[in-house]
Design goal:
By secondary structure, this protein is mostly helical. The chain folds into 2 domains: 32-63; 91-316, MetI-like (MetI-like fold), CATH 1.10.3720. It has helices spanning 9-13, 32-42, 44-63, 81-87, 90-121, 126-135, 143-154, 160-165, 179-205, 209-216, 221-249, 253-258, 270-280, 284-316. It is globular, with a radius of gyration of 30 Å.
Length: 321
């Protein structure tokens, strides 16, 4: 004989299993001191990163006002004598010229070629999709490794470039007349895909309605590119320009692997000049002065380019004519 439960159906369905926590129970209140402490705990990683960045910068700026070198372990304040010495040295201005030519030419050519490649890849096709995957390969190679590869290819005796181009073994890609342009060529090969990928992402984010309306009205491809696409793409292009120009002003690794700043001073950038003074000549204060002056150049240039980017963004949004 079986017995049935006499509880109402509502009570039978609402029965809780043994050991289950009670329902509608408010969580315990967090103490006030923990609430106040939480923002400071969450900010610890950011503080560590900021200190890790600012500490070497402050030390380098401090050294630039000393006469600190390996032969002078007891440095003294010399104030602006290091700046006067560096600014009065012709090799410094040669480094400024080399760095400026490298940054301007490499950034300009990378931008033009990168935009052209992005235009080609923007058209959906099987070849374009395959090329889009292959395009990223140079970015996956470290600049030092790329420099070693290209140095072997530039070799006039057994390099593949002279053999393929029929230049024999007399043309030297890394001579004093050609070294800077060869280094720029290597930088183009490595970083043009970065510009192309960034601009391509911008193209694919643009609205399609203006282009469809212009195509219905019979507008040519060049007209749509010049009047519609290019104004809306300017913010993306300027972001690529800022990234590449700032990076090219600080170039070191590929140039040092290819030429070590030579022959002579033909590829001696500001970074290589600072490296030679600090690491090779062990004149830490002079090398720090190089880097401090380079920081001023990069900071002023970055502020100007960011202001131009802000104007381009407002113009693309229609907030500024």
């Amino acid at each position: 004989m079986t017995t049935q439960s006499t509880r109402p159906p509502s009570e039978a369905h609402s029965a809780k299993p043994a050991g289950a926590p009670p329902r509608n129970v408010e969580p315990p209140e967090v103490p006030m001191w923990r609430r106040k402490l939480r923002p400071y705990i969450l900010s610890i990683p950011a503080v560590v990163i900021v200190v890790g960045i600012l500490y070497p910068f402050v030390i380098g700026a401090y050294y630039s006002f000393l006469n600190y070198a390996a032969v002078n372990p007891d440095p003294q304040f010399v104030w602006f004598k290091n700046f006067a010495s560096v600014l009065g040295d012709s090799s410094f201005w040669t480094s400024v010229r080399v760095t400026g030519v490298f940054a301007i030419v490499a950034t300009a050519v990378e931008t033009v070629i990168g935009v052209g490649i992005a235009l080609l890849l923007n058209r959906s096709s099987l070849i374009g999709k395959i090329f889009e995957k292959v395009l990223i390969l140079p970015l996956m190679i470290a600049p030092v490794i790329a420099g070693v590869i290209w140095k072997l290819m530039f070799n006039p005796q057994f390099g593949i470039l002279n053999h393929v181009l029929g230049l024999g073994n007399t043309f030297d890609w890394l001579s004093s007349q050609n070294a800077l342009w060869s280094v720029i060529l290597v930088d183009l090969w490595i970083f043009t895909p970065f510009v192309a990928i960034l601009v391509l992402a911008g193209m694919r984010s643009l609205p399609k309605e203006p282009f469809e309306a212009s195509e219905v009205d019979g507008a040519s491809w060049f007209y749509m590119f010049r009047r519609l696409m290019l104004p809306m793409l300017w913010p993306y292009i300027l972001v690529a320009v800022i990234f590449r120009f700032m990076d090219n002003l600080k170039v070191f690794d590929a140039v040092y692997v290819l030429t070590a700043g030579g022959p002579g001073l033909s590829t001696r950038t500001l970074q290589i000049g600072a490296f030679e003074d600090s690491i090779i000549n062990l004149d830490y204060s002079r090398g720090s002065t190089y880097m401090f002056l380079l920081w001023i150049i990069v900071f002023v240039t970055a502020r100007y380019l960011v202001s131009v980017l802000g104007k381009a963004q407002r113009r693309a949004a229609g907030a500024e004519s």
